[in-house]
Write a sequence for this structure.
């Protein structure tokens, strides 16, 4: 009798464990598709983002209409080392210069969604500008969103492409500026060896790590703790796509970075929580750094809400670092 009860108990435990495993597997698959899936048919058009930028930042409207009517916005396609076809748009500076901005968009945005930052660099600062579509965004190929992690290598390739487009007998002098996931991409790149042409970085409301961001959203949107779902979803991501949430730690890349970086964040941001800013800023212990807190701004709206001050802060930081001698990595 005792042995029979013991066997029944063991069988019940096994059934419960199998059910838990199945539930976690199903939930992990759902979370991967929910957070990293972005099929072509769901992507908003270039016109959608142009209209949105005009609506949110109306001072850019005349410039945007002008550059499109005069065919100043040009397309380029390249094949990345991984084999996928990638797209970007670019604009030459109003006057010939080797100063160039590579501007990186956020989660489920596309190149045209960064035209307000292109306005800042092209119209206000007289820079050449290149705006890539990241992997699985816009007109670039791709089967999932990389959350700015493997995107760092693609942005490095786009820096090379920009140099080929805009160099006028001399290497370009580049700033790489990203917002949200684009900022996470910028920080991920900052910890790698970058060529001399990449002289400084601007990150606007980037997250400290992919795991931190997903954990924050898991709690906010679903009311769930990070463990165990975040762990199992990370395992599935590694099995499916070759990278895990645990490795995608922007804050560790910032610790390794040596080139100048400007950190920007709205103090009312709860999508990429404002609390992430301080640890990121403090993690940078090598090279110049500066910080700008956009009072009252929520996620990715610092420029919209404070465009004159934002422009001034970016201008001062970027020009001071493009014109100075620095340690290069």
């Amino acid at each position: 009798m005792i042995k029979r009860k013991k066997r029944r108990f063991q069988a019940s435990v096994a059934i419960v464990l199998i059910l838990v495993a199945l539930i976690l597997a199903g939930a992990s698959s759902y979370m991967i598709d929910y957070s990293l899936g972005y099929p072509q048919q769901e992507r908003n058009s270039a016109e959608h983002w142009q209209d949105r930028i005009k609506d949110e930042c109306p001072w850019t409207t005349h410039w945007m209409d002008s550059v499109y009517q005069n065919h100043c916005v040009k397309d380029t396609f390249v094949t990345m080392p991984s084999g996928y076809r990638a797209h970007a748009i670019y604009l030459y500076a109003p006057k010939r210069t080797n100063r160039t901005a590579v501007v990186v968009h956020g989660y489920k945005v596309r190149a045209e969604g960064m035209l307000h930052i292109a306005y800042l660099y092209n119209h206000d600062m007289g820079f050449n500008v290149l705006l890539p579509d990241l992997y699985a965004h816009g007109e670039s190929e791709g089967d999932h969103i990389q959350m700015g992690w493997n995107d760092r290598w693609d942005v490095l390739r786009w820096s090379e492409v920009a140099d080929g487009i805009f160099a006028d007998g001399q290497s370009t002098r580049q700033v790489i500026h990203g917002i949200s996931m684009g900022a996470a991409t910028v920080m991920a790149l900052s910890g790698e060896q970058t060529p001399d042409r990449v002289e400084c970085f601007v990150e606007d409301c980037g997250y400290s790590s992919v795991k931190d961001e997903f954990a924050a959203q898991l709690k906010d949107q679903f009311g769930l703790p990070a463990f165990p779902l975040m762990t199992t979803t990370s395992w599935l991501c590694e099995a499916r796509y070759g990278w895990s949430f645990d490795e995608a730690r922007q804050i560790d890349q910032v610790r390794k970075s040596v080139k100048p970086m400007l950190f920007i964040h709205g103090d009312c941001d709860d999508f990429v929580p404002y609390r992430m800013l301080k640890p990121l800023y403090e993690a940078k212990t090598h090279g110049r750094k500066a910080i700008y807190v956009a009072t009252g701004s929520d996620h990715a709206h610092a420029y919209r809400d404070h465009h004159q001050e934002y422009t001034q802060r970016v201008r001062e930081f970027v020009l001071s670092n493009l014109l100075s001698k620095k340690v290069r990595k």
